[in-house]
Amino acid sequence: MIKKHPLPTAANAAVSRSLADVLVDLGGISAARVVVDPPPGSANFDDLVVANERGGMCEWVDGTLVEKSMGWMESVIALYLGSVLSEFVRKHNLGLVSGADGFMRIMSSTVRGPDVAFVSWDRLPRNQFPEARVPELVPDLAVEVISEGNTRAEMARKRREYFHAGVKLVWMIDPRERSVAVYSSINEYSIVGETEKLNGGEVLPGFEIELADLFAELDRQPS
After folding, report:
1. Which tens digit of pLDDT belongs to each residue from 33-68?
2. What is the pTM of this model?
3. Which of 40, 69, 151, 213 is deepest in the core (most CB within 10 A)?
4. CA 188 to each of CA 159, 160, 162, 165: distance values in angstroms, whole numbers, following the listed order
5. DSSP string, 116-164
């Protein structure tokens, strides 16, 4: 596991203010998700690789290692969607689909791990499977399944980063509301409800999934 030190106290007000600033920049997330060794703002790319090799599930944002907020419900939804999406992508040989631990360096100072992502062959170096553990890649589609530990500001920051990096489509899945916010740009979006179909638009023409089938995973019981 990633080693954490106790958070700063009032005995060091300067450090406390610095940590508070970092938390605001990251979207008001819980301090428990911020790795403080290396100190926030000083972690480099190699620190991220080492942390995740030791069992972490960290993203790297402006020199800070941030643990992903995850849960059982979110994992079930992401895995189901990923399996359906992967089947479609393989059938048409469109590229590759990754899961929550498929971290990608989407910008020079940013590594993100979407819960599900689709990367077309055109975006893969030499149209080949990347060998790096954390490749420099920007997915065509990034999917985030919102957990209770995520904040609105955190997810808004992620969307800004994704579209700034070149992502074409972002799906924000809310398993509690049983809906999906479909973003085609930072500010342009539509909400797809549980009784509707989610489609791949221009990014994945022909792909669609009944959201009732996706969210039915949360209600499934033994026969």
Report:
1. 999 999 999 999 999 999 999 999 999 999 999 999
2. 0.90
3. 40
4. 11, 12, 14, 17
5. EEEEEGGGSGGGS---SSS-----SEEEEE--TT--HHHHHHHHHHHHH
Let me know: does 38 contact 47? Beta carbons within 8 Å: yes
Whole-angstrom CA distances from 69 to 15, 124, 198 are: 24, 27, 24
First to last CA, the chain: 38
| Residue appearing with tokens 């170096």 | 125
Q: Give residue-wise pLDDT tens across range 155-197.
A: 999 999 999 999 999 999 999 999 999 999 999 999 999 999 9
Q: Rounded to whole angstroms, how far apart are CA atoms 208 and 196?
A: 10
The span from the CA of 71 to the CA of 105, in Å, is 23
Which of 66, 68, 101 shows the shortest CA–CA distance to 82? 101
Using pLDDT thresholds of 50, 70 and 90, give the confidence band for residue 12: very low
Cβ atoms within 10 Å, residue 165: 17
Tell me the backbone φ, ψ of residue 79, rounded to 5 degrees.
Answer: -65, -40
- Three-state secondary-structure class, residue 101: coil
